[in-house]
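Hey, resending since the last one bounced:
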Amino acid sequence: MHGVRSATPQTSPDVSLSTFDLLRYAPNPSPLEPQTNSINPIAIQIEKLTMPFPQRTIGDDKVSALGLGCMGMSFGYTSYGGYDDAASLEVLTWAADHGITFWDTSDVYGPHTNELLLGKWFAETGRRKEIFLATKFANTMKDGQMLVRGDAPFVKEACAASLARLGVECIDLYYQHRVDTNTPIEETVQAMAELKKEGKIRYLGLSECSERTLRRAHAVHPIAAVQLEYSPFALEIESDQTNLLKAARELGVKIVAYSPLGRGFLTNTIKSRDDFDPKDTRVSHPRFSEEHFGENLKLVETLSGLAKKKGVTPSQLVLAWVLAQGEDFIPIPGTKRVKYLEENAKAVDVKLSKEEELEIRKEIEKVGGGKGERYPPAMLSKCFGDSPEL
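The structure tokens again:
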């Protein structure tokens, strides 16, 4: 059965000896020698090698508390060196080695190239069983226009194509990426449930759906997770207007938080619109527009000040804050470089007191959160999507 059951790290970048060697050469204290409270550095290294990455649950599976969003490796984010498959494969290996084993992709990333990249890693490493793999369907192109489909034949075709590109027999978590406003969600979920019966997927998920669509879908077959944007810039799921967080918790559906670092803005490394490559998709997002960039930078700088006070990086503070929202939250920050993945991974060790968590929320509310919509109008219209009635 696919899906990770244990996320014990296999290697450590700062230890040259294997676990076997460390155990073999660790000094055994003589019973005649007095014991002291001195620290054995080799024992510490062994603990670092064997300490599992924190986990949360999706369905009956344990998954890493921090996932890995893979989109930017192949799609959308052309700034900062563009795409580098070799570097991305290194990121995937580092993630697997250190217990970050919940990976997220989609057939639309590229399109298709991101799934192919992960498929290459699986083929080269033979480590498929270590990874809890999520991918998505629904977005497709016709005559140069993006369409959203959830009709049963398309669901089956899309899954078969993703399985082939990924080179796997089963997808652990299969999401409808956006809601088809022409196809009742009941038809879509029924097709997904059939895929599960056929052993092609293990869990069903939705992304950017409305509360009503989530409830209708869940009535056909349990929805394991809903993927939604969530960060200090994007708190819409908490609002009475969407009611999504409340509904998800009522149904026992986990929240997979995408763009938890505000598409990189909250890392405090983006200081100007000039930092972006002209082809970078973020240039077209209102939150990064000339009108709103300066105002949003104020929130970034405020949070960075709190991070400095805490002795952590802005990314680590924000991810720790998202994790602190509840055990049902699993953020999936993306990166194309090992150094940033390593930085993000340390967020699980950042413990926020209730007072610190509330202080961060107070600062977010003080500036009114993020300014500008999170997507351009055409893309925003597909968020919190409603399905037509049967």
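The longest helix spans residues 290-310.

Sorry for the duplicate.
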